[in-house]
Amino acid sequence: MSSFRRLFRQTMTIARRDFVATVFTPTFLLFLLAPLMMLGFGTVGGLGAATMAKSGGGKVQIVMLTSGERAASAIAIDRDLRRIYRDRERPPVLMTQAPGADPEQQARALFTRKDIEASAVLYGPLERPQILYGPTGARTADYLAEVAEQVLRAEKVGSASALSTPTKVAMERTGTTASGEGQAGFFAVFALFLVSLMLAGQVVGTMAEERSNKVIEILAAAVPLESVFFGKLLGMFGVALLFLLFWGTVVVNVGTFLPERIATNLADIGPAVGFGPFALLFFAYFVTAYMLLGAVFLGLGAQASTQRELQMMSLPITIFQVAMLGFAAVAAGNPDSWAATAAEVFPFSSPFAMAARAANSPDLWRHALALAWQLLWVVITVTIAARLFRRGVLQSGSPKLRKKKAVPA
């Protein structure tokens, strides 16, 4: 049997052992359903925040101190202007009040009332209106100024009704937009970061656990350390693949039940290379990202001898992953910049940056070079991690052999 075949068999034996030991346990079900728990907590938090926002949103108002025909004209113009805004962007409800003897004092008093929350108040002649606004009412103050302007224009024309009747024709795009490709690039970076954060981090504890149980010394005596590292990496990758297969099936089936409006809005978002090649490239870059980060985390976990040391490593690991996310996000937003080139060349950010490149550019030749470059660094990282473990850990507790001096007779 050749040395390569022997190394391959030993690696797959370790991988199968770790895969079975991880998957066929009750705790794996909790790991598999962890995103569902995260989604549940996020939904509860979102509902709570929405309820709090709605509880105070109904009291917010903008007020114009005017009366008569001008008040009626302001209400009509406000109704027409609101059609331009989306629901969540519309100004607060407009109320009109007849001005009193001291309009300025009346306007200031509205900000102290408990039954309403005045965002902005307009008083005085519409030709030279005075507008008071609160800490978050700068835009609503501009809106009141525009309403006053339109009221004066309607008076000069003689009517507040529209002067033109447009005909609107909806057009459908045949492809994705440039902004849609940019959004797809950022989505690719974030999705790759999210799955690698959840899955690659699981590799850290595997070596520390077996080192504390002295199992690693038995494995190292039976097979080369490179086979142990590669096998553990492949075994945990199989776990990650099972996780992605489960949740990928769920997401695809949930997508078929999306409302038509949401599906239409998502139609403009898409990768430049097409969905088929992009799906293959995304999976390929997930493999390399998992292998690269997993190899680094495996090497770090191999240096930890206790759970305390392992916990102390979690913060640097998280910071490293977030740094790669930020580096690749800059590349996704500026695909032709030097930062994008640096992110694509640096091996640990390269999978994220190249996934964004697949969304921004239709060129495919770059990806063949990038995948070869990343796989080369997987081999380099695993080899370095194995050698550091062999020299720094396995030989740390054994005294060096010394030649005994001959005792003279």
Task: Provide structural commentary.
By secondary structure, this protein is mainly α. It folds into 2 domains: 59-157, no CATH class; 177-394, no CATH class. The chain is 67% helix and 5% strand. It is built from 16 helices and 4 strands. The protein has helices at residues 3-23, 26-32, 34-57, 69-81, 103-110, 138-157, 178-199, 204-212, 215-222, 225-255, 260-266, 275-303, 307-333, 338-345, 350-360, 365-394; strands at residues 60-65, 93-97, 117-123, 130-133. It has a 4-stranded mixed beta sheet, sandwiched between helices. β1, α4 (69-81) and β2 form a beta-alpha-beta unit. α1 crosses α10 (225-255) and α10 (225-255) packs across α12 (275-303). The relative contact order is 0.10.
Short précis:
This protein has 409 residues and is mostly helical.
Topology of helices and strands:
Layout: H1 3-23, H2 26-32, H3 34-57, E1 60-65, H4 69-81, E2 93-97, H5 103-110, E3 117-123, E4 130-133, H6 138-157, H7 178-199, H8 204-212, H9 215-222, H10 225-255, H11 260-266, H12 275-303, H13 307-333, H14 338-345, H15 350-360, H16 365-394
Parallel strand pairs: 1-2, 1-3
Antiparallel strand pairs: 3-4
Helix pairs in contact: 1-10, 4-6, 7-12, 7-13, 7-15, 8-12, 10-12, 10-16, 12-13, 12-15, 12-16, 13-14, 13-15, 14-15, 15-16
